[in-house]
Design brief:
heterotrimer; A mainly alpha (236); B alpha/beta (271); C alpha+beta (604); A: 236 residues; mainly alpha; Methane Monooxygenase Hydroxylase, Chain G, domain 1; 81% helix; 0% strand; elongated; B: 271 residues; alpha/beta; Rossmann fold; six-stranded mixed sheet; 11 helices; 10 strands; 36% helix
């Protein structure tokens, strides 16, 4: 893509992209630390994650301001217009991802030493999947690769499927040992957060597709999450 | 690229062409100025009761094509036009077509406002008079008043109709020229960069005027301002170096153009 | 950027070379303005000189001198058959009545020759007004009529001071008169005549100097001829026929020159003798300025002059020879000798007498503007030429304006741009520079010889001048058409006007001011053209006022040319007056055209 005749226009767009990349990197870091904190029950790390969320919030603010200014100043058309709109949307998604990571890190306080390790493994596995999605989608954005975005978009199925099984597993734990209900609930929330993070990456994927192709994805988003309809029988 | 007829980049026909009747059909039109091949193998359909915008960098042929539609290029001796331009199915380059009648059906508004050095009334009345559109003096007055109203100029000049037209401001002069074009009851109105000599407020009033009257005329506007084309038109055609590169619904052209050259032009990437 | 640091503030130029540059520039501008002002001043000076010269020469032609006489319109002489019919009355002897009245006023004029000279002071058309008055109103027959009688051009010129300078001095002492045969001896106690005497001597010695110079010149001429003769002799001796002819011619030349020289020599010797006589009495002859003494109602011509006394012969006898008291008599000096002027001393005396009796009046010469040309200067008028010029110009305008504008419009708008059109353009530009006499020849060959149109008619003159003026109008019109902004034509075409409608409704009206300018220039040019009109015969002496376009006529510039050739001095003044009329006509024409042009400009 050749440069704009007015160079400062290119600079505006480049700075937006750079801020988004920065935000993405921060989100990745937050997510990795949150999973670590929960898995290793590291309170200090958890606290660092909680404090670090405000940086992501600040970046979202900056990106929004910059986008509005660029629209007013440049009257962007076509590709440029899509790029700016998408930048706003992705920053919202990344900010939500940051919030979910913070929320997950908070749960570390609630999970005590006594909890068996195998309980946390589910969350860890979910978290790793989510991390991978996030990394892939950030790469796809950086490269402007719509195909990669589609792959991420389709892979959400896997997170959903894993979430289903962890959901059932945790339910079983809770039914077996009522003393586990507390920590398992936290774990449930944490796992749910990971699943939500996956959904957000799917959002980002749709935006990337729109950015590249100029129209929305026409397929139905794959939704394998059946937990909202899962029922369980207390009696068995 | 120059030799073979090129269809512009279209994946689908613009929606507007299905919603309106087709007023003008250009078919493999070539325009030469002496040896210079100014317009190369142009084919396009222009809808009625809508505004079509021609955009493109300087020297791309959009004004040339505009002037071919009312055969103003005839006044240039070295200009040669081949191909067909059909208005309502009739080829306007037929031998038996009266150019004067054509120009009464196809009105033109120029870049620099050029009212006649006569009174405001006379400016608007001249066209109807020479075409015999008014049967009596009151008829003529009615035509003039109506045209001025349609051009939203009447309120400002109603008590000085016999003052010279050249005494108005730039924006008012341009509206006077539009009133003059409307007075002969045309079907098509061609506008060659009508706002380029005007300040933003006057330009906005012209745009408002175009919005108001597009229900009744086929309007083609050549403009350098992308934003104006985006605001005002329903169909946009992008010209480059004498070739029609892309044309389509305005909304699509400005959010997701299909040709790279179009994209580069409207995002300001032309070096 | 170092300049900025050197600047103290905006507007101050630091470096010396820049300052010098600025100073040079201002100096150049001042010089240019000076040149412009000098040019204007020079032009103004030329114009002022021109106008002063013309007006000072021409204004006198607008006045004429008349005698206002009360004459009895004797029915017996004017209408013997008592018919009261205009034709019969017209044939009456009006001149006789006037002449007898004149004799009444100057009874001292008795001899036949004198009476003839007296009547010669009246114009040949003196009776015209009298005749016109009585014919118009036969009831005047038998009554006393106050008649203005026109004086001849010589008398008129005398009263205007062109014939001679007159100096009148009142006598300071008493004048005694004693008859001496047919003459009268005048004596004064104070040397009254000294002034006149001195003037005479000065005149005589000047004359002597001139005559001596002439003598010298003749001697030189004779000497050179004699030398030529010697060389011619040599050639003639060898038998050369051309040399022989030349020798003969030279011989006869020398003979005649010698004769003239000898005559002059005797005159000079006489004059020298008289001049050297210093204080003696002078004998006045016709070659010396004249001196009159006006006393007791009479006019005496001095024939001998001394300081205290003079001998005079009476032209008009005084009533008595009584001594005249101081202040009751005067000396009249006429500076030009009688031989050098057209009015004799007698005639001047009569004119002075008429003036004293109060019948001489001077008034505006309306006949200059109302009559046609005439052989007599006092009767000649400009009306014929003026009418001829106006008719000619009307024809010129009627032909050249439509054709010129039409041609310009065609060439500019409708003609295809090819070699033929270029050729036509080049030829039109060249025609503008063709000498006007060529158009005259063309008119002669084509209009007069081939088409057989009437000679000397304004129609033919107008045709020829139209051809002359056409290139100017075409070129100016084309320039005016080119100057109309093309956006107007495009706008008209865009509204659906045809090419022709666009041109005639929009472009042409906008070009009108420029076209009018071209027309003004062309018409002014045509008004002053003489050469082509001469060729087609508008050079004849036309007395009648032309009534139509095919009557013979003349034009103002031609009339001026004809009059300037005539010998009478009065015609010189008329020539200048005619030039004034020409300038006025030109001015009026241009002013009206400029007014029209302003009207066109204002309309848009």
């Amino acid at each position: 893509m050749s440069d704009h005749t007015v160079k400062s226009y290119d600079d505006d767009l480049a700075s937006l992209k750079q801020m988004l990349a920065q935000m993405g990197g921060l989100a990745e870091e937050q997510l990795a630390n949150a999973i670590d904190a929960v898995t290793k029950r590291d309170i200090k790390l958890a606290d660092r994650v909680i404090a670090g969320d405000e940086k992501i919030d600040a970046l979202e603010q900056q990106i929004e301001e910059k986008s509005i200014l660029t629209i007013a100043r440049r009257q962007p058309m076509a590709q440029d217009l899509r790029q700016i709109i998408v930048a706003i949307r992705i920053s919202v998604d990344l900010e939500r991802i940051g919030d979910l990571a913070k929320n997950t890190a908070k749960r570390t306080h609630a999970i005590s030493e006594q909890m068996p390790r195998k309980l946390v493994s589910g969350l860890t596995r979910m978290g790793n999947l989510a991390q991978e999605q996030l990394k892939n989608i950030l790469d796809a954005y950086a490269q402007g690769d719509a195909n990669k975005a589609i792959q991420v978009w389709r892979s959400d199925e896997d997170i959903d499927a894993l979430y289903n099984s962890i959901f059932r597993e945790l339910l079983t734990y809770m039914m077996e040992d009522p003393r586990m209900i507390g920590p398992c609930t936290h774990l449930l929330f944490g796992t749910k957060n990971m699943e939500r993070i996956g959904d957000h990456t799917t959002n980002i994927a749709e935006n990337i597709y729109f950015l590249v192709h100029g129209k929305a994805i026409t397929e139905e988003r794959p939704k394998k999450d059946s937990t909202s309809t899962t029922s369980f029988n207390l009696k068995t | 690229m120059d030799a073979s007829p090129q269809r512009p980049t279209l994946s689908t026909s613009p929606r507007i062409l299905n919603e309106r009747e087709i007023k003008i059909v250009a078919s493999d039109v070539n325009v030469y100025y002496g040896d210079k091949h100014a317009i190369k193998h142009l084919s396009i359909d222009i809808p009625d009761r809508a505004v079509s915008a021609f955009i493109g960098p300087s020297g791309c042929g959009k004004s040339t094509f505009l002037r071919s539609i009312n055969r103003m290029n005839d006044t240039i001796p070295s200009c040669r036009v081949t191909g067909d331009i059909l208005i309502d199915g009739k080829n306007i380059y037929d031998r038996d077509l009266d150019v004067v009648q054509l120009r009464a059906r196809v009105g033109m508004v120029f870049q620099k406002p050029n009212p006649f050095p006569k009174s405001i009334f006379e400016n608007v009345a001249y066209g109807p008079r020479i075409h015999g559109l008014a049967k009596s003096k009151t008829d003529l007055e009615e035509i003039v008043v109506n045209s001025l109203k349609k051009a939203s100029l009447f309120e400002e000049v109603k008590d000085r109709l016999n003052h010279p037209g050249t005494g108005l401001s730039g924006g008012q002069q341009q509206r006077l020229c539009i009133a003059r074009a409307i007075a002969v009851n045309p079907e098509i109105i061609l506008m060659d960069e009508p706002c380029s000599a005007l300040d933003p407020i006057a330009s906005a009033r012209i745009e408002e005027l175009i919005d108001e009257i597009r229900q009744n005329y086929c309007i083609i506007i050549v403009t350098h301002s992308m934003q104006q084309a985006a605001r005002v038109s329903q169909l946009t055609a992008f010209f480059h170096l004498g070739v029609l590169v892309e044309f389509g619904d305005t909304d699509d052209m400005f959010t997701a153009p299909q040709d790279k050259r179009t994209q580069d032009y409207i995002t300001g990437r032309f070096g | 950027m170092t300049d900025i640091s050197a600047q103290a503030s905006i507007g101050v130029i630091a470096t010396a070379s820049q300052r010098a540059l600025i100073a040079r520039r201002y100096a150049a501008e001042r010089r240019f303005r000076l040149y412009g002002i000098l040019a204007i001043l020079l032009t103004t000076v030329f114009l002022v000189v021109l106008f002063v010269d013309i007006f000072s020469k021409g204004i006198p032609a607008f006045t004429e001198h008349r005698l206002q006489l009360a004459i009895n319109a004797d029915a017996a002489k004017l209408d013997p058959e008592n018919s009261k019919g205009p034709d019969k009355i017209r044939g009456g002897d009006f001149n006789g009545l006037i002449r007898s009245k004149l004799s009444e006023l100057l009874p001292a004029v008795t001899t036949r020759a004198d009476r003839k000279a007296l009547n010669g002071l009246l114009s040949s058309g003196a009776a015209d007004e009298f005749r016109a008055m009585v014919v118009a109103n036969p009831a005047l027959l038998g009554t006393d009529v106050a008649v203005p009688v026109l004086l001849s051009d010589d008398a008129d010129q005398y009263f205007k001071g062109y014939q001679t300078g007159t100096t009148r001095r009142s006598g300071e002492s008493a004048l005694q008169m004693i008859a001496e045969g047919n003459n009268i001896r005048l004596s004064t106690s104070v040397p009254e005549f000294r002034g006149a005497l001195d003037a005479l001597k000065v005149f005589a010695s000047e004359r002597l100097q001139n005559d001596n110079r002439e003598l010298e010149r003749l001697d030189n001429l004779i000497a050179s001829r004699t030398d030529d003769l010697k060389s011619a002799e040599a050639g003639a001796a060898s038998g050369d026929a051309a040399a022989i002819a030349e020798r003969d011619k030279l011989s006869s030349d020398i003979a005649s020159l010698t004769g003239t020289r000898d005559q002059l020599k005797t005159l000079v010797e006489n004059l020298a003798a008289r001049v050297s006589k210093a204080a003696g009495a002078e004998t006045l002859d016709a070659t010396l300025p004249s001196l009159f003494v006006e006393v007791n109602g009479g006019v005496l011509k001095v024939t001998e002059l001394g300081e205290l006394s003079a001998l005079a012969s009476p032209i008009l006898a005084p009533k008595s020879l009584d001594t005249a008291a101081p202040g009751n008599w005067s000396i009249l000096e006429l500076s030009i000798p009688e031989t050098n002027r057209r009015t004799s001393d007698k005639e001047i005396a009569w004119l002075e007498q008429l003036k004293v009796s109060g019948v001489v009046e001077s008034g505006f010469a309306w006949r200059f503007l109302t009559s046609g040309d005439s052989r007599e200067p006092e009767l000649a008028g400009i009306r014929g030429a003026l009418t001829g010029s106006i008719f000619t110009l009307l024809v010129t305008l009627a032909l050249s304006l439509p054709i010129g504008v039409g041609a310009a419009v065609y060439l500019e708008e409708f003609a295809p741009k090819n070699r033929l059109t270029d050729l036509i353009e080049v030829n039109i530009n060249n025609l503008a520079a063709v000498p006007s006499i060529v158009f005259g020849l063309l008119g002669l060959a084509m209009f007069l010889n081939f088409f057989g149109l009437p000679r000397s008619a304004p129609l033919v003159g107008g045709l020829v001048l139209a051809l002359l003026v056409l290139p100017t109008i075409i070129i100016a019109s084309r320039a005016a058409l080119k100057a109309v902004p093309p956006s107007i034509k495009e706008a008209a075409l865009g509204v659906g006007a045809s090419h022709q409608q666009a041109i005639f409704h929009h472009v042409l009206p906008m070009a009108m001011p420029g076209i009018m300018t071209g027309t003004i220039i062309g018409m002014a040019h045509a008004l002053g053209e003489t050469a082509p009109l001469l060729m087609i015969g508008m050079v004849a002496f036309i007395v009648d006022i032309p009534g139509s376009f095919t009557d013979a006529a003349t034009a103002l510039p031609v009339q001026i040319y004809l009059w300037s050739d005539l010998p009478e001095i009065a015609f010189q003044a008329k020539t200048a007056a005619a030039i004034i009329v020409l300038l006025v006509v030109l001015f009026v024409m241009n002013a009206s055209a400029i007014y029209l042009r302003k009207r066109f400009e204002r309309r848009w």
